[in-house]
Design a protein that fits this description.
Rossmann fold
Length: 483
């Protein structure tokens, strides 16, 4: 064993016998080993483990270093993570970095854990379970090494890489977890749908009601416990196909419900498109409402998310003049990191990823061809701009209607980047299918789309609608239900 190996062994043995490792609190103390993708997902993740210790293997630092200069969106997160680690360890000696530097205290009642850098290259390779020629294997081997040296401690490898979690389990690591600090729900079935459906006839379940009519709008005031758990702008429908309304407010006793009228919802029109079911009717109501700044559309492929969003955008930009332009963007299979350096304009390079948008434009053009000019004329008239998510950072978008498609593949941080770009007079429409996630590191419950649905459900300027049902074709509907 080399001298450097012996130093690492001594540091680990010292940590094992430190005051923090006494029998009284052995169950409370956990050592977390972080994978690179955790710090890319959330650069300050190492501060989220409260009183527990955090270890960052040297391989993780090397991966962050190789990513930080790639001119991708994730490169910024790598640089932020590196700076955050450096700020924490700036005044520490090499020995202190190996032993662990105290992290900033979370609160007065809970002591803080420590942050350590472990040189996984210098550990005893003969004891390693996996080959040493892959970065993932070196990180797993480091976790296994610590687990062997500290048998009384709970050693947890934290990674968003599903395959790495499987490899670590197979190699003998007892505890492997996903990073779930930003996960708001445990099961996708609990995700807010944006509407509440009553069994049977709505009015048969109402004991007393006071109604007020102003102009063409009627608001009903019913008992607050009619819908025990509700949110602002949540839609209400019934199984008797007789009622459709929207929650507009409440107090301790009463719930205010705007009567939308089921027939009126289904009769809505945007650029020649009418809703094919009540779910599309609710979505179109939110899309055409100028008081709603954020509309979130979820649902299966073929439910009409993109078509409704685009039709409503054309209607509001060309026919009503509410916005100056339409900005269309979406995530790519690279998680929106880059559109490459080959020749071509941004629109030309984004064309393959935005085929769903152009397909919908062609459908809308055929639908309303008698009233408007060529497809290119419509694109120019509506000032439709195709943009890469990578170039949204730093912008301030004013008086625009922004369509963000396929955002189930974006993280919460990436969606925050886009949402915070929206200035005065801008409306954002986020759509996605949580059953079709292409990202290696996201699941339905950790997707940024799920995150914003839950975060914005109480925001008065937002509305969520889950489009239930496939209307693209009977073939698509059968495939969605049976495959």
């Amino acid at each position: 064993m080399t001298k450097e190996n012996m130093n690492n062994e001594n540091v680990l043995n010292e940590k094992l016998s430190s005051p923090l490792q006494t029998e009284d609190n052995v169950e409370q103390q956990i050592i977390y080993i972080l994978d690179t993708n955790i710090l890319l997902h959330e650069p300050f993740a190492f501060l989220s483990f409260k009183e527990h210790d955090v270890v960052v293997p040297m391989t993780v630092l090397e991966e962050l270093d190789s990513i930080k200069d790639r001119r991708k969106d994730v490169s910024r997160d790598a640089r932020v993570a590196i700076r955050a680690l450096e700020d924490t360890l700036r005044d520490a000696s090499p020995e202190q970095v190996l032993a662990g530097v105290k992290l900033p205290q979370n609160d007065a009642q809970h002591p803080s854990g420590s942050l350590a850098i472990i040189n996984d290259y210098a550990l005893d390779k003969t004891a390693h379970t996996l080959s040493f020629n892959e970065n993932d294997n070196r990180i797993i081997n480091a976790a296994l090494h610590i687990q062997k040296k500290m048998p009384n401690k709970k050693i947890v490898l934290v990674t968003k890489d599903i395959n790495m979690r499987l490899k670590a389990k197979g190699a003998g690591l007892a505890h492997v977890e996903d990073y779930r600090t930003d996960q708001l729900i445990d099961d996708i079935q609990f995700l807010t749908k944006g509407y509440h459906k009553f069994e049977g006839d709505f009015w048969q379940q109402i004991q007393a009601v006071n109604s007020e009519t102003e102009g063409r709008q009627t608001t009903h005031y019913v008992a607050r416990d009619t819908v025990p758990f509700t949110y602002i702008n949540e839609y209400l429908i019934d199984g008797g196909d007789t009622f459709a309304g929207k929650v507009t407010g409440w107090d301790d006793d009463n719930l205010a419900i705007l009567d939308l009228g089921r027939d009126r919802l289904l009769a809505k029109n945007a650029w020649g498109i009418h809703p094919k079911n009540i779910y599309q009717g609710m979505a179109m109501d939110a899309l055409l409402d100028p008081t709603i700044d954020l509309v979130i559309l979820t649902g299966p492929a073929g439910s009409g998310k993109t078509l409704l969003a685009l039709a409503s955008a054309l209607e509001q930009v060309i026919e009503r003049g509410l916005y100056d332009k339409i900005i269309v963007t979406r995530s790519t299979p690279e998680i929106a990191e880059s559109i490459g350096f080959l020749p071509g304009t941004e629109e030309e390079k984004m064309a393959p990823w935005l085929a769903a948008i152009t397909d919908s434009l062609e459908v809308l053009h055929q639908q309303d061809e008698s009233m408007h000019g060529s497809l290119n004329y419509i694109i120019d008239k509506a000032n439709i701009q195709f943009k890469s998510v990578n170039f949204m950072r730093g912008r301030s978008i004013q008086n625009a209607l922004v369509l963000l498609d396929e955002c189930q593949n974006l993280t919460a941080a990436q969606l925050k980047t886009i949402i915070t770009r929206c200035g005065e007079g801008t409306k954002l429409v986020c759509s996605g299918n949580l059953a079709q996630i292409d990202s290696n590191y996201l699941t339905a419950v950790t997707s940024g789309l799920t995150y914003i649905v839950e975060r914005f459900k109480d925001f008065p300027g937002s509305a969520t609608v889950n489009l239930n049902g496939v209307v693209r074709s009977r073939l698509a509907a059968f495939a969605e239900e049976n495959l």
